[in-house]
Amino acid sequence: MKLMYSPGACSLGIHVLLEEIGKPYEAEAVNLRQPPAERALTALNPKSKVPTLVRDDGTVLTEYPAIAYWLAGSNPAAKLFPADLEAQVRTLEATEFCVSTLHMQGFSRMFAARRAEPAEAEAMTALGRDIVLRALERMSGVLGSQDWVMGSYSIADSALFYCTNWAGAFGIDLPANLAAHYARMRTRPAVAAVLAAEGLS
């Protein structure tokens, strides 16, 4: 397998899952500052974004939830996805909320504001920050007093981690239980290895 990633981007979570699984894989960094037409990634994934996973048979998977679900389903020994149907849908629900709301609606606005004109940047940042804060409170409620989002470690934890990893860059304080989750994630050998590999440790 080969992961196309950008250091510190949402692909961080998929990188963590690959390391958790423990099977051989390659990881190739993509420069997202390049125009899409100039990225080697675009030939593999016309969406020209990360994460992009090239499987051993040469087929390509895109989109975080799909890649995470496939990795968990094709590597059951890693126990990254629960067996119970209700727990499965709740895992997907939490994963998708992190990706579609916390990331895409919240943090993406704040990242985009850094490149916007000052007149637009303030409003974009304010809206993004409000969405992030409300989404973090929601995930804080989902996590509760558990160590892991679903009670046992799963793909949802990797999605939450890549989002909470961005909080400090925007001066956002995590709710206490999410801060503890973030610290707990960083102690996992797989996470530490990926942070080092991406130059983030």
How would you characterize the overall build of this protein?
The chain is of the alpha+beta class and 201 residues long. The chain folds into two domains: 2-79 and 192-197, 3-Layer(aba) Sandwich (Glutaredoxin), CATH 3.40.30; 85-188, Glutathione S-transferase Yfyf (Class Pi), Chain A, domain 2, CATH 1.20.1050. It has eight helices and four strands. It has a four-stranded mixed sheet, covered by helices on one side. Helix 1 crosses helix 8 and helix 6 (155-167) crosses helix 7. The longest helix has 29 residues, at 85-113. The chain is globular and about 50 Å long. The protein starts with a strand and ends with a helix.
The number of distinct β-strands equals: 4
> How confident overall, as mean pLDDT?
97
Count of individual domains: 2
Order of helices and strands: EHEHEEHHHHHH
Quote the beta fraction: 5-15%
> Total helix count?
8
Concise synopsis of the structure shown:
The protein is of the alpha+beta class and 201 residues long. 57% of the residues lie in helices and 7% in strands.
Task: Fill in the keyword field for this structure.
4-stranded mixed beta sheet; 201 residues; Glutathione S-transferase Yfyf (Class Pi), Chain A, domain 2; 4 strands; 2 domains; Glutaredoxin
